[in-house]
Amino acid sequence: MDEPKKDLFDMNEIVDDTIMFMEHHLTRFKHVEISIEKKPDLPMVSVDKIHVQQTMVNIIMNAAQAMPEGGQIQIRTGTNDQYVFVAISDTGPGIKEEDMERIFEPFFTTKEKEQGTGLGLSLCKRLIEANAGKIEVESRAGKGTTFTIMIPVNEHLRSSTSSHHMQQ
């Protein structure tokens, strides 16, 4: 895997670019609706934009494939603690509890042979971790799944109220 080519980005712009790029892919999934909720004025993050986009595309395609009868995908951006996040939720069947701890393993897949290699999520995890981030998943059977991509806020852009000003 290539070293991340990091640059400063606004996560909202990455979301917009990714959705624009995916529009023609998503026309195959006639009954899948995508809604986007972006928190304004997010702190900038230092990431390899392509890595984040590849991860988002993979998660969104998985979500769409998991809902052959249709459903909704919600993409939200925001901040928590020291991370800027993108949460991608679907209204699909969810992930079985016994599969949850295996979904990031290479070659683990619940798809038919022709539909996937099982490398998608393990690659996503590696891409995000290469950018000092993390990826979390929450799922309830029959209720859907949420993947959250978290990228640390760029330290150089934090407000100047860091701890070294406190020392007397």
What does this entry look like structurally?
29% of the residues lie in helices and 27% in strands. It has 168 residues and is an alpha+beta fold. The chain has a single domain (7-155), classed as Heat Shock Protein 90, CATH 3.30.565. It has a 5-stranded mixed beta sheet with strand order 2-4-5-7-6, covered by helices on one side. A two-stranded antiparallel ribbon has the order 1-3. Strand 4 (71-80) and strand 5 form a beta hairpin. Helix 2 packs antiparallel against helix 4 (120-130). It is globular and about 45 Å long. The termini are far apart.
Offer a few descriptive terms.
7 strands; five-stranded mixed β-sheet; 168 residues; disordered C terminus; 4 helices; Heat Shock Protein 90
Brief account:
By secondary structure, this protein is α+β, with helices and mostly antiparallel strands. The chain has helices spanning 11-26, 49-65, 97-100, 120-130, and strands at residues 7-9, 32-37, 45-47, 71-80, 83-90, 134-140, 144-152.
* Low-pLDDT windows of residues: 158-168
Percentage of residues assigned to helices: 25-40%
Number of strands: 7
| Strand arrangement in the largest pleated sheet | 2-4-5-7-6
Cα end-to-end separation: 45 Å
CATH architectural category: 2-Layer Sandwich
Bin the strand percentage: 25-35%
Question: What is the alpha-carbon Rg in Å?
Answer: 17 Å
CATH fold-level name: Heat Shock Protein 90
The CATH superfamily turns out to be Histidine kinase-like ATPase, C-terminal domain
Mean pLDDT: 86
Topology pattern, helix = H, strand = E: EHEEHEEHHEE
**CATH class identity:** Alpha Beta
Helical segment count? 4
Shape: globular
Quickly count the domains.
1
